[in-house]
Design goal:
The protein is an alpha/beta fold. The chain is built from eight helices and nine strands. It has one domain: TIM Barrel, CATH 3.20.20.410. The strands form two sheets. Strands 2-3-4-5-6 form a five-stranded parallel beta sheet, covered by helices on one side. Strands 1-9-8-7 form a four-stranded parallel beta sheet. The two termini are about 25 Å apart.
């Protein structure tokens, strides 16, 4: 594995004030502060609304050259009850490409109610509309996808397109550690009930066993992948930056001193 990146799912958590961000920062200064410490971020906001190109250009301008963004495909494009909107899809991908070399994989995050047996045609239509020059990861959350013929079908279709099956830690479904491309995409999500938003800001649950399990799986797959992205949500244990450092420890990496003044890094 040539490239391992470990970051958080968003840089805008209000629970990070006084822990990651000093109160002297403005909202707009949080991204550069984050990006001088972590080397990637999963942008949660694009799941709810496609980003304007001017906003994406601003993200690019305010981050170091080696930083990477992964964007979630907008949820309107992931609804099997509606035909794939090819124009909307192309517009989203064009906005994403404004990031240039700072664009990592695009995540197709399907909700739990997307089940096998009724949605395969929609999935094929959506995958067929993707720009093959970009990289993608696909996340499904219904257990029916991870057994028998649905799993075989899913792995085959993803492998044919070099799309990663997202390895997602969820409290309600076990996702298999299947490798479908030279890209690996690992998400530590948790749930909103165990650790609700109002408790974020410090570690609430010891998730060391789960982190160690998935770190072992990542190491076992290292000779089959070229790059890996790993992301932590606050809902996983309570405070995503500390969870990042726990994973880094398991991988034999130095911790990120996220509250320290950053070393000046060249921006593009």
């Amino acid at each position: 594995m040539e490239d391992l990146r470990i970051g958080c799912s968003s840089w805008t958590s209000d629970a990070w004030w006084d822990r990651v961000y000093p109160r002297t920062l403005s909202d707009g200064e949080r991204l550069p502060w984050y990006a001088r410490r972590f080397d990637c971020v999963e942008v949660d906001s694009t799941y709810y609304r496609a980003p304007a190109r001017a906003m994406v250009s601003s993200w690019k301008a305010r981050t170091p050259r080696n930083f990477r963004f992964t964007l979630k495909l907008t949820r309107d494009l992931l609804d099997p009850k509606s035909p794939v909107d090819r124009e909307h899809l192309a517009s989203f991908l064009a906005s994403a490409q404004v990031l240039g070399e700072k664009l990592g994989p695009i995540l197709l995050q399907f909700p739990p109610w997307v089940k096998p047996g009724r949605t395969e045609k929609f999935l094929l239509d959506l995958l067929g509309g993707l720009d093959p020059s970009l990289r993608y990861a696909l996340e499904v959350r219904d257990a029916g996808w991870f057994q028998g013929e649905p799993l075989r079908w899913l792995l085959r279709e993803l492998a044919d397109r070099r799309i990663a099956l997202a390895w997602s830690y969820l409290t309600y479904v076990e996702v298999p550690a299947e490798v479908t491309s030279d890209l690996l995409y690992l998400r530590f999500i948790g749930d909103h009930t165990t650790i609700p938003a109002q408790t974020h800001g410090e570690v609430r649950v010891d998730r060391t066993p789960q982190v160690r399990l998935w770190a072992d799986r990542l190491r076992a797959a290292a000779d089959r992948v070229e790059r890996a992205f790993v992301f932590f949500n606050n809902h996983f244990a309570g405070f995503a930056p500390d969870s990042v450092n726990l994973f880094r420890q398991e991988m034999g990496l130095e911790p990120i001193l996220y509250a320290k003044e950053p070393v000046q890094t060249r921006l593009d």
